[in-house]
């Protein structure tokens, strides 16, 4: 269940095993590739190149794709257990993690995941977005926070060569943001930016990067972190360099703040600012509050403090961790009992950590557990490959297939070529389904 990187890498690992296997991949969206299609910023085509490897997996004999098929509505866990010897859950973490501070629900306060889904053309989010704020706060110290900040700070002309849909380009053309502020609770050595993602900010036309020299000091634990990790060293050097260089006069500014813990969102009927407590390093790599508070006036706020998974019908769910409970990929009940034949992989298994490439190792572990169990699994009573198709057709599910994706892919590329781009995404779900099922 899930045609993102985790689900596809799992299918690939199973196909490479020394056993005969057939894999059906179910996906709630009409198109495959999950996070790569709907979670990677459109101005990062280098990262999107992983689609080519994922495409090769789904194009193999022995794999079928059932898109536009919703778990818990179109198919249930009982349905899957009736038709398959084993079920692997790869539904990911698609929701924003909460930030529990006063005022966080005011108009003008947004989750980063929702904004990312909007600018990536997700079919299930609104077609428009309020971009009327000149001063914007982004809470978070990871790559998603940088993606959100960069898209907000860019001029629309610098986005139009990407695969952003027309509705996104039209809204970005009205974006009023001139100052985007990214706030991190800890210091520069604890930031979770990757070096390449961070350095890309300095190549955005018309954008100045602002870092307060007071924020780039290191304690002994931070120095040790820099010495022990090459990526941390590059991030720290980049930020220190920006803090020390002369300010350039540019029309838009991206401010990177550290040692700022948000305590309240200000405003009565919409966001007007954020109150922060200044933090300081505690000598162990963590921070503690100083009791000093500041307020930053902003008209919009985005929280990029992490993702969480969603509860799935019939499966035990750890609401605190936002994941399925498991042992090496084997799904467990909340009492620790084994759910035989049910497995988890990807972010729904381990939480929203690691880059796309890390999913391969996760899939290898889960498939290893499945193969170790296979001789003891109960065979599905309806193993005929045609049976699941018959079930979906009886239920009136307009499911999409791999051939359907190839038609949609061809259509998007053709429209993109007409406009001088690699691709123009189709956004409405019904249009995606119609194109996919037109053959």
Describe the model.
It is a single chain. The chain has 439 residues and is an alpha/beta fold. It folds into 2 domains: 5-94 and 309-399, NAD(P)-binding Rossmann-like Domain (Rossmann fold); 95-303, FAD/NAD(P)-binding domain, CATH 3.50.50.60. It is 33% helix and 20% strand. The protein has 16 helices and 19 strands. It has helices spanning 5-15, 34-38, 45-48, 50-58, 77-83, 112-119, 143-153, 166-172, 195-200, 220-228, 230-244, 347-350, 359-373, 385-394, 402-418, 429-436, and strands at 23-26, 63-66, 87-89, 95-96, 109-111, 135-139, 179-183, 207-211, 252-257, 260-266, 273-281, 287-297, 300-303, 307-308, 317-318, 323-324, 326-327, 330-332, 338-344. The strands form 6 sheets. The protein has a 6-stranded parallel β-sheet with strand order 5-13-6-7-9-8. Helix 6 packs across helix 7 (143-153). The protein is globular and about 70 Å long. The model has no long low-confidence stretch (mean pLDDT 93).
Short description:
By secondary structure, this protein is α/β, with parallel strands linked by helices. It has helices at 5-15, 34-38, 45-48, 50-58, 77-83, 112-119, 143-153, 166-172, 195-200, 220-228, 230-244, 347-350, 359-373, 385-394, 402-418, 429-436; strands spanning 23-26, 63-66, 87-89, 95-96, 109-111, 135-139, 179-183, 207-211, 252-257, 260-266, 273-281, 287-297, 300-303, 307-308, 317-318, 323-324, 326-327, 330-332, 338-344. The strands form 6 sheets. The chain has a 6-stranded parallel β-sheet with strand order 5-13-6-7-9-8. A 4-stranded mixed β-sheet has the order 3-19-18-17.
